[in-house]
Amino acid sequence: MAELPAGPEPMPEALLSIAEPAVAAKDPPGPAHAADKKTSAWKERGSRNLTYEERRAMLDFLMTRRVEGTTKLVRHAVTDAANEFGVDRRTVSRLWKRAVQSLENGDEVCDIASRKVGRRGRRKRDWSAELERVKEIPLAHRGSIRALATAVGIPKTTLYELLKEDGNPTINSIKPSLTDKNKLERLRYCASKVRPSGLFDDMHNVVHVNIKWFSLPRDKKTKVMFMAAVARPQWDPQKNEYFDGKIGTWPFVREQVQVQDVDTKPSIETPERTFVALEMVTKDDVQRMITELIVPAIRQKMPAHLIQGPIYIQQDSAKIRSPGDATFAEEGRKEGWNILLQNLPPYSPDFTVMDNNLFKPIQAALKLPPPPTLGVSVSGLSELMSSVERGFASLSRDQINDSFLSLQKAMECTMRVQGSNTYELGPTCKEQLQFDGSLPVSILCDSDAILACRAVLDDATEEVLDTL
């Protein structure tokens, strides 16, 4: 039997050929890379809406891919734009359709701005029913926004926005013209209120006084000048309570004693004391009120721990009382206290706390109807005095504290504009900080404002500084 031929001998293992690893070929540029680019652009932009600059850049991108002489785009132009800017193809199509519509209408500039502005978010509440009640409210009860808001039942900020939408904007703030000397005096005053750490002084030992004429809206002939005094609210450790900052308000009136018969009994209908308003308030009247009324009220109401340091009565620039007045100095040193006077720089009403915010609630209280008096006739002067006292008592601790913070912000802005009064405070968000519990006691002055103030004061000649 013939034997089968033997197969080929197996090759040694060392001689076996080893296949080289296959090298992955690079994928040609195609849809996969375009998708990666779109994903990268999407992550970079996030979920926010396109800005106007991004919309304009997308339109310029599409205009370079337009068929010349037509409004048609070349093939894959919409897809390329979507990948380039990280948006959906429908977004690119809508933008191009709006641009084509503008071109067909003959517009010089294509209208591609976002249409979401003013059309998103919670819908505005309809206040038409409340605003209709304004016609039924007497004029005497809607002399101010605060009084009108109380009568209608709308928050005063909302009412202000509603009136601003219908009315023409006006500017009624009067800022006096300042000389170079006035600006230097303002800068020196602001610099004296900044501590070495950059924080403003807390002003816990400063009492701001101011005088103002008040009159009833329905009786303009009854006009009285009042002097009000406030300090910054603070904790009183001796009384274990908060000092609300309200020192008091006093009218410039003169008492008239009525001579009554012996048989006539005193009654409410025939009061024993009547007051007459002073038609002209002199310097002596103001000096007497500061010495006899305000200084004793400070000793009575201010926290007792302030007796250790000086307490300053902040006057306006009128300088009704000079700091070296012997009569005032004697009254200020009674009972161990050290009460001194200091003056504001000339033409600086923006540095007065009472002029900033605190007189507005008092003026609003004058436009409200007086409380019932049980059939007792009340004179216009008595009604005016009680209304001013009621408005002053309605001031909250937060309102007074916010006025002091606004004063610090005004001084910072003054330093930034080199002593001028042409500045805007801008939003301060005090209510939000108060709600969060992060409202500061003192504002940290901006370093740029400090440098600007220091540069002006350093450049001023010594002759000018000596005259201040």
From TrEMBL:
Per its UniProt record, what InterPro entries does this chain match?
Answer: DUF7769, RNaseH_sf
Gene Ontology molecular function terms on file: nucleic acid binding
Query: Where is the sequence biased in composition, kind Basic and acidic residues?
Result: 34-47
Alphabetical list of Pfam families matching this protein: DUF7769
**DUF7769 domain sequence ranges:** 50-106
Residues making up the signal peptide according to the UniProt record? none
Task: Give the residue ranges for region: Disordered.
Answer: 24-47
Q: What is this protein called?
A: Unnamed protein product
Q: Which organism is it from?
A: Phytophthora fragariaefolia
